[in-house]
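Problem: given the chain below (402 residues), write out its structure.
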Amino acid sequence: MHMLKFRTYQVIIHIAGWLLFMALPLLFINGGGRNEHILTLLGSPYYWLFCITYIALFYFNSYILTPVLFLKKKYVLYYTVILILLAGIFFLKPYDRLLRHTGGFGNFSMPRNSPMRENLTGRFVHPPPPPHGEKTYPDTNRSGGAYGRPMSPDDRSPYFMPGRHGPAFRTRFFDSISIFVFLMIVAISTAIKIMQEWQMTEQRAIRAEADKASAELSFLKAQINPHFLFNTLNNIYTLAVMKDDNAPDSILKLSNIMRYVTDDAMADFVTLQSEIDCINDYIELQRLRLGEKTKVDLDISGDIENKTIPPLILMTFVENVFKYGISKHHKSDIIIKLKGDYNGISFFCQNSIFPEKDEKRRVGIGLKNTQQRLAHVYPGKYVLDINTDNQLYTVKLMLQTS
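Solution.
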């Protein structure tokens, strides 16, 4: 649909541009704007020769010469063809032919005795005979005199050619207007095609970058899911070995987690509530194996409705807390806080650092992949601060979701 609208817009632009171009000869040649003269011009084959010549030149250069020769760096062949076309315009003289066969530039709008009209058209108005019977022509070098010296060949207009029936037009050797329009059409069509190719190259680069980012995200999620499930299954195994009565309920919670990880986590975004439900189930599984030495403080507050988040972004940090923040020999406190507001989400988690587990933390892939996913999904819209001050591993994450 977007492509169809874009092509429709292009067609409208082309039509409007060519209508404007076709109106220019009507404005210049028919300066008075009288309807009968406009109809005369529209009925002239030389008018259509002028228009069709340059329209065909525009599309021939835009869709054949520029993409096939110029953009493929075949410059010598490209400029050779352009010179051949220029020579054709030089001999065809479309503007000069149009001018000669429509009565001249401004012929309809200028006063009959106007010197400007005399200069441009070569049509001279003969005044009444002079007092002494000497035949003279108007002096075209004067601004308004009625009589002047006899006209010499040097005073004649470039278009003036006397004949048996009076002044007429003759073809000029060099039609500068046709050459100028030719150069403008070639320059504009080449520039437009180059801009279109540049835009297409940029779009292809953007699509390639997006596809690359999507592939990387899929790869990262494919790594996180087995990693997360492996750790959770280890926890269930521990409960089963201990013959804990809560094992059946734990399996149900694991089923919910697996459904989230295998189904919902395949989407680019999930509701924040889905991520919270997964976190709750995971924490409940962890509580079953925790002893009295570990205290878990979970606090979820604020506005969490109508918010979305990439799946397993927060879950990875929660998993990390329980994996490295629990010790069988030392007391530990685990703090997890999540708050939603109108601007986004604030997440905080903290656990004690135990030397025997800190070395293992550095080789984990979960945290590294989550950081890469954040960089892909929230470029410039997130703040992640991880520090180890006071023997505490602290994570602060702020996501701008609106």
